[in-house]
Amino acid sequence: MLVKGTTRVCGVMADPVAHSLSPVLHNYMAEQMGIDFIYVPFRVDVRRVEEVLKGAYEMNLLGMNATVPHKQAILPYLKEIDRGAADIGAVNTLVRMEGGYKGYNTDLPGIKRALADAGVTQFAGREAVVVGAGGAARAVVYLLAREGMSRIWLLNRTLARAEEMAGHVNGIFGEGLVVPLRTDCWRQIPAGKYLVIQATSVGMYPCVEEAPVEDPAFYRLIDVAMDIIYTPAKTKFMKYAMEAGAEAYNGLRMLLYQGVEAFELWTGQTVPAEVSEGAYCLMERMLEQS
Question: What Enzyme Commission number does this protein have (predicted)?
Answer without folding.
Answer: 1.1.1.25
